[in-house]
Design goal:
This protein has 11 helices and 13 strands. The chain is of the alpha/beta class and 324 residues long. It folds into 2 domains: 164 residues, Thiolase/Chalcone synthase (Peroxisomal Thiolase, Chain A, domain 1); 149 residues, Thiolase/Chalcone synthase (Peroxisomal Thiolase, Chain A, domain 1). The structure holds acetyl coenzyme *A (ACO).
């Protein structure tokens, strides 16, 4: 599997930490020192998850010069679909005119984009189609309780996309070299969102209602442990060390998590790409948006190797090493 192009879409509206100083019992100093976040983007009512996903997809398609009719599959990783059905992927498929594509959403919280990318790899390997659009799109402002200072300041909205192609030519660079996927459903209580209707119908009550509920310190510990283990496993499976890696794209939840992860992997800071200071945590959209920016930041060249690693609700985790 080769990445042909990347794309992104961030809402125009910038919400700085100063906004939360007026709304909640918090300070810019607390938010920045505990999370590394300075500002985030917030979607307007018209900027739906499907709209943001579509814009990111069009950005990627434009750069690749592929016609939408050639795309065989659209996968959208999201925890914030605008509707239960149609899926966000079906709405994107219609909006971009990918009339020959199968389309579905995948939900693995913040790990959703890597789960989707790895799934796309399996479809391409089995010759299901030639081109797949993999999107991470999130409107987290819709599921964040703006009165809860422990979560309100952390999340943002946006979308990223990659267009991938089957690559069976050994002379052409661009490959998924190794990956790791994992989950631990016994840790559901550290990070969850119960849709009020379905939870009521199933008599599930962990509290939290229709908003993200998180035990920050528990998530922090598990995120570091599982991301470090997963990344090490994937590097070993690829037969690589961190010295072979051009850049690491970690899930963008917290700068302190990224720093500890970099220490555990023994990766120099400058190899770890971050944009969470500008966008906050955009869940499944973090890695594709970061990839799109890292491509320019590091002037990625064919043959460069990139390590991506994520952790999210469920709990779930994933990592992958790609050759550009
Ligand atoms: N402003 C001021 N004080 C605050 C705020 C705030 N915004 N939020 C919490 N506090 C307070 C707490 O109430 C607590 O006060 P207390 O000591 O009087 O009880 C104190 O600050 C310390 O709170 P902690 O939770 O211990 O703070 P911590 O240093 O752990 O930072 C944070 C919290 C930023 C949430 C951190 O734990 C974290 O980033 N966790 C991981 C989040 C993550 O990785 N999420 C990824 C997955 S998201 C997904 O899948 C959708």
């Amino acid at each position: 599997m080769k990445i042909l192009s990347t794309g992104k879409y961030l809402p125009e509206k910038v919400v700085t930490n100063a906004f939360f100083e007026k709304l909640l019992d918090t300070t810019d100093e607390w938010i920045f020192s505990r999370s590394g976040i300075k500002e985030r983007r917030t979607a307007s009512p018209g900027e739906t998850c499907a709209y943001m996903g579509t814009q990111a997809a069009l950005d990627a398609i434009d750069k690749a010069g592929v016609t939408p009719a050639d795309i065989g599959m659209v996968i959208v990783a999201t925890t914030t679909p605008d509707t239960v059905f149609p899926s966000v992927a079906c709405q994107v498929q219609a909006a971009i005119g990918a009339k020959n594509a199968a389309a579905f959403d995948l939900q693995a919280a913040c790990s959703g984009f890597l789960y989707s990318l790895i799934l796309a790899h399996q479809f391409l390997k089995s010759n299901t189609c030639q081109y797949i659009l993999v999107i991470g799109a999130e409107k987290l402002s819709a599921i964040t309780n703006m009165e809860d200072r422990t979560t309100a300041v952390l999340f943002g909205d946006g979308a990223g996309a990659v267009l991938v192609q089957a690559n069976n030519d050994p002379h052409v660079r661009g490959r998924l070299l190794a990956f790791d996927l994992g989950a631990d459903g016994t840790q559901e209580k550290i990070l969850f969102l119960h849709n009020a209707n379905t939870a009521r119908a199933n008599a599930v009550d962990l509290g939290g209602g229709a908003y993200i509920t998180m035990s920050g310190q528990e998530v922090f510990k598990h995120a570091i442990t599982e991301m470090a283990k997963s990344a090490q496993k994937t590097l070993a499976a690829a037969g690589l060390t961190v010295d072979d890696i051009r850049c690491v794209i970690p899930h963008q939840a917290n700068m302190r998590i990224v720093k500890v992860l970099a220490d555990r992997l023994k990766v120099p800071k400058e190899k770890c790409f971050t944009n969470l200071e500008r966008y906050g945590n955009i869940s499944a959209a973090c890695i594709p948006v970061a990839l799109s920016e890292a491509e320019k930041h590091y002037h990625l060249q064919p043959g460069d190797k990139i390590l991506m690693v994520a952790f999210g609700g469920g709990v779930t985790w994933a990592s992958a090493v790609m050759e550009w």
